[in-house]
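Entry 0007
Protein: ComF family protein
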Amino acid sequence: MGELLLPQKCAGCATPGALLCDDCRLELARPPERVFPNTAPLVPVFALGPYAGAHRGVVLSMKERNHLAVRKYAGAVLRAGVEYLEARGDIPVSAVLVPAPTRQSSARARGGDPVEQICRASGCAVAPVLSLDPRAADQSGLDEAARRSNLSGAVRLTAAPGGRVVVVDDVVTTGATLHASVAILLAHGVDVAACVTLCAA
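Output (structure tokens):
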């Protein structure tokens, strides 16, 4: 349990000695860029980096290795990316962050939903209003068409967030999760400005 709370190696590259080494901190500080997933989510999508190097390492540490301590730092990275996009005029100032939905079983196995936790750690307003039908399959082993089919009708809106929102996820691969999330929000009259992810595969 101590390793989960006080890891002894870098979450980005596994170098012994620090939560995040200097090289990974520098890599994570890169400004966000617009990306264009195959399944267009109906609004602009921005990624804070590629699914490689430190970004990939941090995501895998959070999701596959229950690295709880790095989620706070990932929240700071998300906050910096959001503020950069605000300053550039790509997203509205003080938009509410809406975490993309995750399977409840996955969240339990990971010590909580990593995406919701990094949103909260960012210090921005957060509205966790999206849920996923428990019958939806794990997306990781599915191709693009199967991901779209798997999420068709599976994303639910549990409450209406106020104001303009930005949907947040850890990784955008095909865009299916973001598309389903944005679509249900728009269908209920929610003003969705953009999507932001930690990285793009």
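Curator remark: The first helix runs from residue 2 to 5. The beta strands are 33-35, 45-47, 96-99, 130-132, 155-157, 164-172, 191-200.
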